[in-house]
Design goal:
Blueprint (H helix, E strand, L loop, with lengths): L4 E5 L3 H13 L3 E5 L2 H10 L4 E5 L7 H11 L5 E5 L4 H9 L4 E4 L4 H16 L12 E4 L4 E4 L2 E2 L4 H12 L7 H8 L8 H18 L6 E4 L3 E4 L4
Parallel strand pairs: 1-2, 1-3, 3-4, 4-5
Antiparallel strand pairs: 6-7, 7-8, 9-10
């Protein structure tokens, strides 16, 4: 019995062979494709547990592919695999909602360990359903949050961040606490990454209720959800 099927999107056959071998040796099934278009076709036909996406693909930028994959399969976790290890690329990748980011050259065992860590995080059931704040409704099974009755189109990271705030209205969370609760690898996130996600969350909430701003910024401290009045 396999641990799940992983989609490997990598245009270099030698690297793809290494990744596929490491995954299958550790109990996963793996499907390799070399282009973004092939990845989209595969994702439409198969319910993958996770996707490993190379940023430098021949037909499409890996960031764009991530957007398209997550639009088609919002629950699909993504790990970026790339030779570009600069901070800007890392921040952009994580802000897109990717679950992790591995730079080449890499250890195949470490990559598989990160795959398992991400899958444990996204598959972990909630022990107790949170008590939502009045304007919010959390459907944890569907990974969906409604705001004033309207379903929000959230990335996985945005969903996790907002859910943390909803669970304890008025409670101030530091950026480090939010990173720990919303990211599988908190060390891969940055303060400004949290700020960027909060900014996009605010924009999506404002699109539903333009005159309301339920997320409160506490300068030098972090963020909280405004308590219902």
């Amino acid at each position: 019995m396999t641990a799940g099927t992983v989609l490997v999107v990598e245009d270099e056959p030698a690297i793809a062979d290494t990744v596929v071998y490491a995954l299958t040796t550790d109990g996963f099934a793996a499907q390799w494709v070399a282009t973004g278009e092939a990845a989209l076709a595969a994702a439409a036909a198969t319910a993958f547990a996770l996707a490993i996406v190379d940023i430098g693909l021949p037909d499409v930028n890996g960031f764009d592919l991530c957007r398209r994959l997550q639009a088609a399969r919002p629950s699909l976790p993504v790990i970026f695999l790339t030779a570009r290890s600069g901070e800007i690329d890392r921040v952009v990748g994580l802000e897109l909602g990717a679950d992790d980011y591995v730079a080449k050259p890499f250890s195949p065992r470490e990559l598989v360990a990160r795959v398992r860590t991400v899958l444990r995080r996204v598959q972990r059931p909630a022990a107790v359903a949170p008590e939502p704040a009045a304007p919010f409704e959390v459907d944890d099974e569907r990974k969906l949050i409604r705001y004033r009755g309207a379903p929000l189109d959230l990335s996985r990271i945005e969903y996790r961040l907002l859910k943390v705030l909803i669970e304890r209205p008025g409670r101030v969370y530091s950026r480090d606490e939010l990173m720990t609760r919303a990211w599988d690898d908190p060390a891969a996130a940055f303060d400004r990454t949290v700020d960027a996600h909060v900014k996009t969350l605010r924009a999506k909430l404002r699109a539903v209720a333009p005159d309301d701003d339920p997320i409160v910024t506490h300068r030098g401290l972090g963020y909280s959800l405004r308590e219902a009045r």
